[in-house]
Amino acid sequence: MSIEEDDRQLRHECGVFGCIASDPWPTDLDVAQIISLGLLALQHRGQESAGIAMSEGDNHTHFNVKKGMGLVSNIFNDEATKNLKGNLGIGHTRYSTSAGSEEVNCQPFVVHSAHGALAVAHNGELFNAGRLRRMVLARGVGLSTHSDSELITQALCLNPPDIEIDGPDWPARIRHFMELTKLSYSIVIMEKDRIFGVRDPYGNRPLCIGKLMSLTEPNKEEGWVVSSESCGFLSMGAKYVRDVYPGEIVEFTKEGFHTVSVMGRPHNRPQAFCIFEYVYFARPDSIYEGQMVYSVRLRSGIVLARESFVEADIVSSVPESGTAAAHGFSMKSNIPFAEVLYKNRYVGRTFIQPNARLRRLGVAKKFGAIVENVAGKRLILIDDSIVRGTTMGPIIKLLRDAGAKEVHIRVASPPLKFTCNMGINIPTKAELIANKLTIEQLAKHIGADTLAYLSVEGLKEAVTEKMPNKNAVEVGHCTACLTGEYPEELTF
């Protein structure tokens, strides 16, 4: 199911975006509008608050900032973006994990240090936040929030390298921060006239680079963008260039971008890109690790059909993030795909409802059954994941009431059994249905004839099969929420 109607409370912490215009400055490029479009494309990653910080590039003491609670389109209307002048800027859209849903936690965080203003936007959750917080507090700095992002901002200001000549050495400060904590973050950082894009050494959270192209002069570059996902690039006239590498610090200026440094992982451990980005969080038109998310979801359905085939008349999906996997299942099984559920797009997200009964009623209001495709049919229904198990039961009842003869549930990911601790707000282990019921018990509980999950190895196969560098020794994915195997030991 798509994140908009999820009672499962699987929430990503946020999306980050940055844009810088090419020389000459002042630019004719509407940088604030581009950032607003970028955040709109990342809205699925966070629907709680949003913010933009802009710089003219010639004043190290002042940024133009606007932040607020709510959706990007409500905060950044035409009038708001017109007032955000600048040649470069960064933006953020947020769900809360480590800090609460309050305006004080809206990002980007802006601090005014002895060396000028600094703006920081962060995606992820620090594995050793408690220890880092104690270190910052011990240095005499008060923190106004419980946000990891404020903690990062203050740590950057507090920890200069041993020797700084002619002002702060921000790349050295960033490297020092990365030595203090290896997980989990993608960060965009803005000072007066440049932006840094930073990705943790494990590459757990995504970050990618795009080139803004002129709409009137072919092959003319007008600027650069850096984003949690590439899904909005085409809509703003940008071309995907590449991912920010794990451990890489990229500096963006009006002349272009270059790599400042790349920090390795301890003990030559493999990368640990979040595998659930492919399963659930990313938009299907995003590119990760050289491949489209849609293609990975399609292959997940192909592998799922190979692992858990069942005779049926129709393959379908719970709209919409299960649809690509359903098409893959249909291709492999030679069972035709047809829509069986219509989604009402004018009903609010079910996880906002205050109790289980109202959540269930919310699910019923969200979908209608396409009776002609359902009545008298044996159905295979594909979903991307099952977390609490409260959503699927009402959907199956809806299909039964519409005349479905059989309903077989196939899940295009393994069962969720563990919390994340790296930026995804997964319910506690006790709330996860896979820790309460066996597969057979869960099938009975939700009213399905059969239920089967994709295996962990099957998911890994789907993710790596078409990766351009799949045989490289450093390639790896974090499966902690599925297996309990974390990239590093959690410290407090």
From TrEMBL:
Mg(2+) binds at S321, D383, D384. It is an enzyme of class 2 (transferase). SUPFAM superfamilies: N-terminal nucleophile aminohydrolases (Ntn hydrolases) (SSF56235), PRTase-like (SSF53271). Its EC number is 2.4.2.14. The active site is at C14 (nucleophile). It catalyses: 5-phospho-beta-D-ribosylamine + L-glutamate + diphosphate = 5-phospho-alpha-D-ribose 1-diphosphate + L-glutamine + H2O. Its cofactor is [4Fe-4S] cluster; Mg(2+). Pathway: Purine metabolism; IMP biosynthesis via de novo pathway; N(1)-(5-phospho-D-ribosyl)glycinamide from 5-phospho-alpha-D-ribose 1-diphosphate: step 1/2. Keywords: 4Fe-4S, Glutamine amidotransferase, Glycosyltransferase, Iron, Iron-sulfur, Magnesium, Metal-binding, Purine biosynthesis, Transferase. GO terms for biological process: purine nucleobase biosynthetic process; purine nucleotide biosynthetic process. InterPro entries: GATase_2_dom (IPR017932), Ntn_hydrolases_N (IPR029055), PRTase-like (IPR029057), PRTase_dom (IPR000836), PurF (IPR005854), PurF_N (IPR035584). Binds 1 [4Fe-4S] cluster per subunit. One of its GO terms (molecular function) is amidophosphoribosyltransferase activity. [4Fe-4S] cluster binds at C274, C420, C478, C481. It holds the Pfam family GATase_6. Residues 14-255 form the Glutamine amidotransferase type-2 domain. NCBIfam families: purF. In the C-terminal section; belongs to the purine/pyrimidine phosphoribosyltransferase family. This is Amidophosphoribosyltransferase. It comes from Acyrthosiphon pisum (Pea aphid).
